Request: fold
Amino acid sequence: MMKNSILYANHNRTTGEIETRISAIKSQLAMLAICSSSASGMAISPPEYVVPQGIIELDSEFARKIGFVSSRFLSCSYLWGEGNRIVINTIECTDRRRGYLRDLFKAIWALGAEIAVRTPLYTMQLILVHYGFVKVFMKDPIRGTFEYWVKSPEIYI
Reply:
């Protein structure tokens, strides 16, 4: 009987929620493989990512490829590369309602990367809902649980 209730619970989830959870699990497995390989001495090389890891500053080489430039976004804006996901921590457009954020989203998805927005303010939540982002909670072993709004390129296409 327990097996049926688990299937029933999963049946009520939307495709986007399931894909988001799968993407999160894949990211965690990739990190687990990297961490376990260094500890055990296995010769597993880290996976190739389309996104640079760590901070992505305005006007850097990668930032110019996706349109994350100072003519469109204020200097307080920055992105963070994490696996094949770009996390938006802080972002502010130089001129609102010009499509700069939309263009940034499309460029990131065109690379095949996922976008995650960490703990957005209300106005940003409205924008994310418009683009079909899904609210999820992710646990970090050091910093605790965070609210993210996530959308994968598979959902976009």
